[in-house]
């Protein structure tokens, strides 16, 4: 899909340069004004506030993981990890109900257009300023796309159906196309009942099967049952906010495929703990067959934080084995769950390159990137992340300084934080800063807040809880309501010969709403 000059000006990304036919993918220089070139491009300097506050509902419910009620309603995550995840059994029952209703076994939506575009963002539904700040830049940079995909965690914190009006229908009321989604672990905290009702039109029995074993009475007693779904209220919200003819659609199930002449987009449901049931694994192998290029969308990323998480399949095998099989012709795998942007271009055994991407910056609190070690799964020079590690450390240092009431000790400027990260990781200077040695205070704060030392993953000294503790505690240090938010979304443009992927930033600054910074831009040949 070619872009004319006004479109390039609006999106802020230029056409890719000519590429040799032999290249596996081509990097495209991002827009000059972004986080890699200046502090203003990162959102540290805002000339005017964002207009997204005008989109907020009259009353924004602020949830905190420290509230006992929220912790109690999120207990299914702990139960699933301690006593076994019943998501597979629940999903099988729901899929059987969908097939009885007449849904095709292939769970596939067909599109005849060889050229199309779509927008993808993950972990959206926090319902506060950080989610709504993504909306204006998304509409300016990707409002003309054919459809949207939400990759994981449509509703925070506990997947309740009653929160869809303000956390799904309202924020995306002006997006003109249909929206597909794959559920995340938070959507499963109510047994996926709200998700199935909104996206699949199914009001299913989401009760888990009985656990077995000597302690089976514990999960049976503690498991949170699905709440009632108020169908009329949800339908009223749908009609009010997303009632346009082009906006309404039903997806085949919690996992699905969108098949086009040039590319097949496949979405999978990874439940609470990241596993696929046997039936879904069989379906994934079948829908992955054939020579057509394919892109996977998953609730759990396969590569993240310099770690390989292949995704188990009940009965044997992994998701990544299917992705890497040369007979399946995957070109990329995009996952949510982790709330930032990361990209790992991985070479396969047969010489192909698969782009493994994390896109979870669609609205929820930010997961740190400064805790990512110097990458070993790919060369550090090929790795991309947003926010940059230095910006991430600077943001967390300000949060801890405020929370501990020690700003003079903790707070690091972006330049100080970048120097400390470069010193500890041994990576190249960023953003054109001069390269002075970081102060002792900066080195101390970097070590305390989790920046690894060189190739070592386990630092020797005490570290504050930044990334390793469960998010119900970590989010208290990672959530804020003023720019820069460091949120992001992807625009993907498909032609018969190539797939172009652009990562746009949502800083919350008014300066960036109509022309959001382009943080990453690359092209994958499809032939």
Structure description:
Residues 1-18 have a biased composition (Basic and acidic residues). This protein is α/β, with parallel strands linked by helices and 527 residues long. It has two domains: 68-204 and 215-366 and 482-525, Purple Acid Phosphatase, chain A, domain 2 (4-Layer Sandwich), CATH 3.60.21.10; 384-477, no CATH class. Helix content is 28%, strand content 16%. The chain has helices at 5-11, 39-42, 68-73, 75-83, 87-101, 129-132, 135-142, 164-169, 193-200, 217-222, 231-242, 278-287, 319-324, 389-403, 407-410, 414-425, 440-448, 471-474, and strands at 26-27, 108-110, 116-121, 147-151, 179-182, 256-259, 264-268, 294-298, 303-304, 307-308, 330-335, 341-347, 353-359, 384-386, 487-494, 498-506, 518-525. The strands form three sheets. An eight-stranded mixed beta sheet has the order 2-6-7-8-11-13-12-14, with helices on one face. The longest helix has 15 residues, at 87-101. The protein is globular, with a radius of gyration of 22 Å. Mean pLDDT is 88; it is low at 1-12 and 15-26.
